[in-house]
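Look over both lines:
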Amino acid sequence: MPKIVQHPEILVQARRGGTVESLHRACAALAGPDGEIVERWGDPGMVTYWRSSAKPFQAQAWLADGTIEHFGWGAEELAIMSASHEGLDFQADLVRRMLADLGLSEQDLRCDATLKARHNCSGNHTGFLAACVNHGWDVPSYQQPDHPAQQAALKAFAALTGGDAATLATGVDGCGIVCYATPVTVAATTFALLPELLPEIGAAMRAHPELVEAPGFIDTEVMRALPGATSKCGAEGLSCFSLPDGRGLAVKVVDGADRAHEPAGLAALEAVVGAGAMSDELRRIARPPITNDAGDVVGELLAVVPE
């Protein structure tokens, strides 16, 4: 077994006027194509919820049980079910069309009270609703942990990540769906294996990166810049990447700070794939400005990845 390369943790500096005012810390793990961890930054044994990074694995449950085929859905529907989209017109319209296929409406979405189809998790919720309609399960209670749809998604996630559904740590996500926690290393391993675990879903996400988040955002721009890569990030500072060469990378901001998420994830990605693979748009996203109340740029966030 090759020796695992260990680095200090990643630091995200908040710089104002040339002075480092604050620091966020991140851990990361890199897995080889076989899923074995080969490189670490900080302590990626940290257990964290996958949040939206689990969406493609939840969608796999509806592919495996015949729900997707039953409704005649394809790559676009798989991509939006795996998405944390920005609620743009073309994204919300796709969700509405899917709901119409189910004989349902936006009012059946329980992701929030107002955004409905424009909520970033609406595609994911529509997948759960599709399973309910396909199997005759109760629709209004689809978010409840003991609901058959939630249990099916939990079992699918556990099987794909090598866990045990009976002992997997679970919680409630911001949108009300059950979420799952594992060590960051498990996320890196699973994303390394994503091409064989989720071949159809990964291909759908790469074919329609604009549905997975939106132009100008990390998931979409990573898949645009790196042909063959699959990117799916989650709340509280988790970034997960399946790389074109078969490796998997997972990065977690320890304090969950949203502002440190993209700098940490993209700096780690650049350290792994090389600066030449990063697009101008990714470099822009990786160094977000700090502005004052008037909107003037007065600093920036910059991640430092130790070698």
User: Anything to note?
Assistant: The longest helix spans residues 258-273.
